[in-house]
Amino acid sequence: MSRFDEPLTKALDPKTAKLLHSVLGLETVGDLLRHYPRRYAERGELTSLDALEVDEHVTVVGEVSRLMRKPMRNRGGTWLEVEVVDGARNKIYLSFFGKGSHVAESRLKTGRRGMFAGKVGLFGSRSHPRWQLSHPEFELFEESEASAEEFSAAPVPIYPAGKDLTPWVIRRAVGVVLDTLGPLHDPLPDDLRRRHGLQDLGEALVAIHRPKDFADVHRARQRLKFDEAFVLQAVLLQRRQAAVAWPAKARPRRADGLLADFDARLPFALTEGQALVGEEIAADLGREHPMHRLLQGEVGAGKTVVALRAMLQVVDAGGQAVLLAPTEVLAQQHHRSITAMLGDLAQGGMFGGTAVTLLTGSMGAAARRAALLDAASGTAGIVVGTHALLQEHVQFADLGLVVVDEQHRFGVEQRDALREKAGGGRPHVLVMTATPIPRTVAMTVFGDLEVSTLSQLPSGRAPITTHVVPAADKPHYLERTWERVREEVGLGRQAYVVCPRIGDLEGDEGDLGASADQPPGDDERRPPLAVLDVAELLGEGPLHGLRLGVLHGKLPPEEKDAVMRAFTKGELDVLVATTVIEVGVDVPNSSVMVIMDADRFGVSQLHQLRGRVGRGGLPGLCLLVSDFPEGTPARARLDAVASTLDGFELSRVDLEQRREGDVLGAAQSGKRSSLKLLQLLRDEDVIEAAREEAARLLADDPELVAYEGLRAEIDRLLADERAEYLEKT
């Protein structure tokens, strides 16, 4: 067994091993050594507080500037507030209560420097908020001879940590492992390392955790980044090789048939991009090995029409096509829109068309049996559904094409589960996303797929204007928001109001309230706004008299469908919803979207949501409501969304603001992400070099028989994927 695979329970004391597992999910020596420092501290350059995020578990390095004893309001006694400054003289406040306050007071003296770790909150008045850590753990550099020596002579690693686990506990655990590590077998071939000037793996691990200077950190990062890129690219290239090797039934385009009839009836001309991508897909479908293509395009670029034309080509060739959607609302929407686009071609039977069947997990027993029979018998040429399509008892007569909508919601294993239903060969696969993807991300996340891009919007799409509504600073702006909604409804149009939470049905899940030992009298950040609460307040207040509907993921499927149908038909003026309307929902008469607590959504998610308006030739208006003042990172995200409609530009903003390692999501990695150091936007040269080297290696040795260490690294990555997939299903 490799030392990397040794359980932490053997390498460390049981208490530390248990803590590392429960908080960070680390199980082996390799997991711990791959848990790299987030940053490094050095004397004279204290941590900046500019980029803190509410409710993060953070570690700041700072200097104690003031201690204040304050009386407890509404009860006896006092509590301790400690002011800490960073290198830019920004301030963060530490609060201590009870006996802990006296212990802290005895150790924290003005002028002392150290590391302070805890969950960060934003408190005080809305106009003058301030950062605070409640009962933080801390380590003072002056109190420990080792720490003082480290701090003065070398960068001090600060690790991603969590509740009950401080960075210095991790640092000591890493030290124990490094002291007993011994020589490691390097998975990268010697000649490859020489070509790229990369140091040995063992040297890199020592340097990343115990650097003598920042040059050590740089060299170690270069080596370890290359490892991450190389292993991922090797996995993706192996997948691509395996996919090409599988047989698939060719589904060539027919000159007559359903596709020709559909094209002849289209009430609009395809864009140049739709026509070009359509030809690429048609050529892929005509080959005897499976298509694996990613179709990405801006919100409203017409991906559904492209996918439907591909499905009709397969049906014309005697096969079936499946459209897999991430939510029931989206599956129902796709079913309705495909049926509407096909018209009488969706009737099947004597009309010479094909039946379009819907299959979701919460359908009634009779409807579900009928849908399963349609799929298994081949009666349904097109089947639209959710994860329910992945279940073992769902069978198809001749599955020729799998279309996966919003690929980032599904893991690779889930995609493979549907591929297996094709019988003797593999079906062709088309995956779609409306989240534009920078080139380096596409190369890494979807490196096993060919990529097609729709950048041109169909004619008739109106521009969308986006504004941030600073509800806390300027409450009259929020009043004006509801007036605008009434004005749009008065013109015969419709509106969405989106909230981050459902309400009572979720209990406290997702609430971001303050901790119980909050300093009395300070404002705490309220829980996210909930659909059920907001709908009631609007109905009784500013939108009184309008026809309001409520939509969220926990409604029974028939009720969700009924609400969407009513909104689509114009029987509702305003739809108050969660993000179930994020993708695929198409109501041309909707012209305005109000997103409450917009700071709680990601950049790409906000871009997706606002794509629900401006779809019917009407100018779209998106209003992002937030309590955050200007100058905060959350407000900067909202300003970025308001400043551009370019999804590719926003995807770069989104990626830059997310933690490294979150990028792959369920698509390629397990809970312990394989990307810890690699920055997909900044390390394009590393990714390209790693892909070239992986291709060269796999061309000579497709199974990596001669590279046992590299095979082991790939096996670890795939094991994490499978574990994540099993947990999700």
What does this structure look like?
- The chain has 729 residues and is an alpha/beta fold.
- It has 4 domains: 3-212, Nucleic acid-binding proteins (OB fold (Dihydrolipoamide Acetyltransferase, E2P)); 219-245 and 681-728, no CATH class; 258-454, P-loop containing nucleotide triphosphate hydrolases (Rossmann fold); 464-644, P-loop containing nucleotide triphosphate hydrolases (Rossmann fold, 3-Layer(aba) Sandwich).
- A 7-stranded parallel beta sheet has the order 11-12-10-13-14-9-15, sandwiched between helices. A 6-stranded parallel beta sheet has the order 16-21-20-17-19-18, sandwiched between helices.
- Helix 14 (365-377) links the parallel strand 11 and strand 12.
- Helix 8 (201-209) packs across helix 9 (214-245) and helix 10 (258-265) packs antiparallel against helix 12 (303-316).
- The radius of gyration is 28 Å and the shape is globular.
- The two termini are 30 Å apart.
